[in-house]
């Protein structure tokens, strides 16, 4: 207090500038003893006080007009930033690091900001982005980002009741300002009649639930279609590999094998709908945020394999259609067997055992088996295998089950004919299945289940509340597309969602406090 009361500090300029900046202005106000200083010359008194968590000194400096200037954007092209980057880029990054350490200090956040909770969360998000830009200080920025979240938790932890939580999260709200300039009130206001209010409350509570049910029903129907498709495919390979079956004498055999069944057409429509949903989610969240969730990557990869599989199937059908068109125009015999066909047309009359390994239909079936792992062998026919494994759903289940105990050999995926792609896909998928079951599930599952059970048993109520909150929040996203076949009602649901959008946002804050009463860890995860 005695030092800053000196007339030299009037106006607060010397408290804001670092010693290095003072020297650049030909101001020799700061001097050093023979041993130098323990601190970098770019550190201001306020930054140093924030680093040391000196609340009283921070308060004194703030009263004198000192503050920590937020660094410019990392990609700023102003003359000052360009000059610092040109002279010493590492020193510039170090200066930014020291500044952000001061900004992320609990002492500075709590004393300089009118809304430390909001400021800390915004700063945490900015620091997380800088961690991916300034690689030299990547770990430091990540620690600072987590530190800001811990500050928020610490502030809310000091609250003794719900009213104090509301006061902190709502802040000093000026009701005359538009709603976008302040936090929404935590308690929903329903300025409607009692009957209308009950209707709105019912929609408000049921809308996320119905959204969850729609996705669950959609995926269940998709699985059901895959089961029906499996039955159709197994029925289609009952004939021997050297047999051809046609509906009439002049029909090309491949026309019959490449046509899509009604279940496959429905699966294709489902895949297109789910692909559109994933693309829209990636567009809304951004590619970086989208791929951070590995389930999104898995879903998109699975859908991509389905799309490529159906594309190959369509190519095979188009080539067979061209061959059929040639037969219809040029073959007059009553039977194709007695007709003379060009080799490129005759190929589509051959039985399965004469197909080329690069045939689009074989590639399509191989890719389809990758997308539907447990059905990967449905493309094989009975007489093409050394044993009946994977020729039916029942045989597939038996083979996979007994392979866990080492009672099914690798011969289960060997084919007699030169269809190497299909055979190699069988090797890979069957090998991945055995490694996963034997090495991971059987040897690690017991320990993992025991560990998880102990954790959940000790904190069962909090775990349930956190899981419930995550499920609710997953259905609150705006603008997401409903899955097939519920897309027709999207416009009506969007209209109702817009009307109650503010009420949904207000209830999210209440969920925070519900979790906070029990444990800090779920709240930290939720803030993440």
UniProtKB/TrEMBL annotation:
It is a multi-pass membrane protein. Residues 76-138 form the Transient receptor ion channel domain. It is found in: Membrane. GO terms for biological process: regulation of cytosolic calcium ion concentration; single fertilization. It comes from the Eukaryota. One of its GO terms (molecular function) is inositol 1,4,5 trisphosphate binding. InterPro entries: Ion_trans_dom, TRP_dom, TRPC_channel. The chain crosses the membrane at residues 212-231, 290-312, 399-415, 427-449. One of its GO terms (cellular component) is cation channel complex. Keywords: ANK repeat, Ion channel, Ion transport, Membrane, Repeat, Transmembrane, Transmembrane helix, Transport. PANTHER family: SHORT TRANSIENT RECEPTOR POTENTIAL CHANNEL 7, TRANSIENT RECEPTOR POTENTIAL CHANNEL. This is Transient receptor potential cation channel, subfamily C, member 7a. It comes from Sinocyclocheilus grahami (Dianchi golden-line fish).
């Amino acid at each position: 207090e005695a030092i800053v009361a000196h007339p030299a500090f009037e106006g607060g300029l010397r408290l804001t500038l670092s010693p290095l900046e003072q020297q650049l202005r030909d101001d020799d106000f700061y001097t050093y003893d023979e041993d130098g200083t323990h601190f970098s010359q770019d550190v201001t008194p306020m930054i140093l006080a924030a680093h040391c968590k000196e609340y009283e000194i921070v308060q004194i400096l703030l009263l004198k007009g000192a503050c920590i200037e937020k660094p410019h954007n990392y990609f700023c092209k102003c003359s000052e930033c360009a000059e610092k980057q040109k002279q010493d880029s590492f020193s510039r990054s170090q200066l930014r690091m020291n500044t952000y350490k001061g900004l992320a200090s609990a002492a500075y956040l709590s004393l300089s900001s009118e809304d430390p909770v909001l400021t800390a969360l915004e700063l945490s998000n900015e620091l997380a982005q800088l961690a991916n830009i300034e690689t030299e200080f990547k770990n430091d920025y990540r620690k600072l980002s987590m530190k800001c979240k811990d500050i928020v938790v610490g502030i809310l932890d000091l609250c003794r009741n719900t009213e104090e939580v509301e006061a902190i999260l709502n802040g000093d709200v000026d009701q005359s300002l538009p709603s976008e300039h302040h936090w929404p009130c935590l308690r929903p206001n329903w300025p409607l009649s009692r009957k209308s209010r009950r209707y709105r409350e019912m929609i408000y509570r049921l809308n996320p639930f119905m959204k969850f049910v729609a996705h669950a029903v959609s995926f269940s129907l998709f699985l059901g279609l895959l089961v029906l498709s499996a039955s159709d495919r197994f029925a289609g390979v009952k004939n021997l590999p050297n047999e051809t079956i046609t509906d009439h004498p002049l029909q090309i055999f491949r026309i019959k094998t490449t046509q899509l069944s009604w279940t496959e057409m429905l699966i294709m429509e489902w895949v297109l709908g789910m692909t559109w949903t994933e693309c829209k989610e990636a567009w809304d969240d951004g590619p970086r945020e989208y791929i951070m969730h590995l389930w999104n990557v898995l879903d998109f990869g699975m859908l991509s394999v389905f799309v490529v599989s159906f594309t190959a199937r369509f190519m095979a059908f188009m080539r067979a259609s061209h061959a059929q068109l040639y037969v219809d125009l040029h073959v007059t015999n009553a039977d194709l067997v007695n007709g003379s066909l060009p080799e490129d047309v005759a190929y589509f009359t051959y039985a399965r055992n004469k197909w080329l390994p690069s045939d689009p239909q074989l590639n399509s079936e191989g890719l389809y088996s990758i997308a539907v792992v447990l059905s990967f062998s449905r493309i094989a026919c009975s007489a093409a295998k050394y044993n009946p494994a994977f020729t039916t759903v029942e045989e597939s289940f038996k083979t996979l089950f007994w392979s866990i105990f080492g009672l099914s050999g690798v011969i289960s995926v060997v084919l007699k004919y030169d269809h190497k792609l299909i055979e190699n896909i069988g090797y890979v998928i069957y090998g991945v299945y055995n490694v996963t079951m034997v090495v991971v599930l059987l040897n690690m599952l017991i320990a993992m289940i025991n560990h998880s059970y102990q954790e959940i048993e000790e904190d069962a109520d909090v775990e349930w509340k956190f899981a419930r909150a995550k499920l609710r929040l997953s259905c609150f996203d705006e603008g997401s597309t409903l899955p097939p076949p519920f897309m027709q009602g999207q416009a009506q649901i969007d209209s109702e969602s817009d009307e109650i959008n503010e009420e949904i946002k207000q209830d999210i804050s209440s969920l925070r406090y519900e979790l906070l009463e029990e444990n800090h860890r779920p709240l930290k995860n939720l803030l993440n």
